[in-house]
Design goal:
It contains 22 helices and 21 strands. The chain has 631 residues and is of the alpha/beta class. It starts with a helix and ends in a 10-residue tail after the last helix.
Length: 631
């Protein structure tokens, strides 16, 4: 039965995690639909255009229209819920700048949500500077989270003077006094929020962000004491917002509902006691379904965006009604859900590890050691019925092989032949084991070891650090050849000198796969995309092996389905990353030049050779930090 592009859509799970943004066309090319309509970007075709513009691999592709689409969807969901439940206030979305501080990302989000009250959250002075520089809607919030000092507070109060709704969130008791002191010095009434440390906790990788042991927030007693301190200072009128946060990427809706119930109850009690609260900030946690399984697994979520909005609005309305207090404006700090989909990395596969041998490839001469002939007999005699016994025999023969080599009885060529024989036996044993109804664990483990390693021109540590640090899953899909059946189970290794620089966990509906089916390399360029990397990866990337930021392109699709390349940005040169670590590239070049002149004087080089060395060294300093397979 022939393999079709629809088979590829199912195999890679695109129909599950793609959320309508990704598809495959009849040519077998991966598509991006930025507006989730019939207008699409053929990624393979756009790569050809980008190459003509000298954009290099690996390259990061951004789709700003996806950002606009996500903002609209978030506000639409809450506004639909507000209308359905006759909620007596509004929704105010807030983007946490820490999720992606790239200027073009923040600019696009603010522009897309300006008319609807889109705000920003800052956790540092630099992020607050970003937030204050934007022209926001008059109702938009600027939420100041994190620990603070006097300069941070002064900067926030300058924002209040400018007419912005800059809310200083109290994270620890001492900050109340700090805010009151600085505001008195400046003569500016602050807008104060308090982050309460809930009993409820989130779930998934970031669940420790909530609960009683959380890093940030006030206990119930500390909130009461902070309110009393504001009263004594005649500043209770500044207390406008209650905030809580129970973690990022919460996969279970029941955890969100529990937190909202508790937070809304605290809000209602404080409001009933006289606190002039206007906003309830339910924090972050809205998930992204990276694997498409719609489950409570870490990389998934068992709810929809609309269900999330419905639950938040309904719970707050019910509790406020029961307590007899006005319903607050609802704010949420949904970062990942807004930006994850908009960016993907395209890398070029340059090769693979050793090609596995088959029985037909392996000729064993008569004059070799008996152990090699015996291993060949095991390979030739293996069947479905005896594969387990024969594999165990081969393991004994392999140990004998290495013992004989260590004692000097085997040549290097004989050792190499023995290793290839054992590899072929192992692959044949796995093949037979997979035909059984139940695959023994030893053969499942063996299969993982035998997976082909495709070498791709990128750095895990720079472009997808969460894959390495947190075992975060990201969808991985070939950019082209999706009409051909992929027959090579493989992992994706990067070009860093680190064994951890490998993607060996892949999305799947039922489990996490240890390999991904890719196409046989045929000597032509082979491109693979790593998708949904728009959240955190840009700002967490490091410079392991001094591989730097990659080339970028920003792409949109307009009327008439015309694809436009809005902008391209060059990635780091070697000299750029060297400066980050206090090297002086010009001084380094002069040192090489000095050493070359010395070699000329000592007659180890002639002048032409020395000049060529210096020129090539300077050229290397200006080169892209990644590999160039076209040269």
């Amino acid at each position: 039965m022939s393999f079709s592009v629809r088979d590829a859509v199912r195999l890679y799970g695109i129909e599950n995690w793609g959320a309508g943004y990704f598809d495959v066309n009849e040519q077998g090319h991966l598509l991006v639909r930025p507006n989730r309509d019939e207008r699409a970007v053929d990624l393979h075709a756009v790569l050809a255009r980008l190459r003509k513009r000298k954009v290099r691999f690996p390259m990061l592709l951004r789709f700003p229209q996806i950002l606009s689409n996500r903002v609209a969807e978030l506000f639409d969901a809450f506004e639909k819920s507000i209308a359905e439940y006759a909620y007596g206030n509004r929704y105010l979305g807030v983007f946490p700048v820490k999720v992606n501080q790239k200027r073009e990302v923040v600019d696009e989000l603010v522009a897309a949500g300006r008319d609807r009250g889109m705000g920003l959250e800052a956790g540092s002075k630099a992020e607050l500077a970003v937030a204050l520089s934007h022209r926001l809607h008059k109702d938009a919030l600027v939420i100041c989270n994190g620990y603070k000092d006097a300069p941070y507070v002064r900067m926030a109060l300058r924002g209040v003077e400018m007419g912005k709704r800059v809310v200083l969130i109290v994270e620890k008791p001492q900050e109340v006094g700090l805010i009151l002191r600085v505001s008195k010095e400046m003569g500016v009434a602050p807008l104060i929020g308090m982050r309460i440390r809930l009993h409820a906790r989130g779930s998934g990788k970031w669940e420790k962000s909530g609960g009683q042991a959380a890093k940030f927030g006030l206990t119930t007693q500390e909130v009461i004491e902070a309110v009393e301190e504001l009263k004594r200072a005649d500043a209770l009128s500044s207390f406008r917002l209650l905030h809580f946060h129970v973690g990022s990427q919460i996969p279970e809706i029941k955890r969100i509902k529990a937190a909202v119930k508790e937070g809304a109850r605290v809000y209602a009690k404080l409001r009933a006691a006289g606190a002039p609260l206007e906003v309830l900030d339910v924090g972050g946690g809205l998930g992204v379904d990276y694997d498409g399984s719609k489950t409570s697994y870490d990389a998934s979520m068992n709810y929809t965006l609309q269900e999330y909005a419905n639950d938040v609005v309904y719970i707050v309305r019910e509790i406020c009604g029961a307590e007899g207090v006005p319903e607050p404006a609802i704010a949420s700090e949904s970062g990942r859900a807004l930006v994850a989909f908009h960016a993907l990395l395209v890398c070029e596969v340059s090769g693979k590890n050793a090609t596995p041998a088959t029985a037909g490839d392996l000729m064993v001469p008569q004059d070799v050691h008996d152990v090699l002939r015996e291993m060949k007999e095991i390979l030739d005699g293996m069947t479905r019925k005896n594969h387990r016994e024969y594999y165990h025999d081969a393991m004994e023969k392999r140990e004998e092989l290495y013992g004989l080599f260590d004692l000097g009885y085997l040549s290097l060529r004989e050792r190499a032949l023995g290793e290839r024989l054992f590899d072929a036996i192992s692959r044949q044993a796995v093949h037979y084991a997979k035909e059984d109804r139940f695959v023994p664990e030893e053969f499942e483990d063996l299969e993982k070891k035998l997976v082909t390693k495709y070498i791709a021109n990128f750095s895990v540590f720079q472009s997808i650090p969460d894959s390495w640090a947190l075992d975060q899953l990201f969808p991985v899909v070939p950019i082209h050849r999706l009409g051909e059946e992929p027959t090579v189970p493989a992992t994706l290794c990067d070009v860093t000198c680190d064994s951890d620089g490998e993607i060996d966990r892949f999305v799947d509906l039922r489990d996490v796969k240890d390999s991904l089916d890719l196409h046989p390399l045929d000597g032509k360029p082979y491109y693979v995309g790593i998708l949904m990397i728009g959240a955190y990866q840009d700002v967490l990337g490091d410079y392991h092996n001094l591989f730097g930021i990659v080339d970028e392109a920003h792409i949109a699709v307009g009327p008439g389905k015309k694809v436009r390349i809005l902008d391209t940005q060059s990635g780091d040169r070697a000299r750029d990353v060297l400066r980050l670590f206090a090297y002086d590239p010009e001084a380094m070049a002069k040192s090489v030049e000095s050493q070359a002149r010395l070699a000329v004087r000592e007659k180890r080089l002639d002048k032409a050779q020395a000049a060529e060395i210096v020129a090539e060294y300077r050229e290397a300093l200006d080169a892209y930090t990644y590999l160039d397979f076209s040269s």
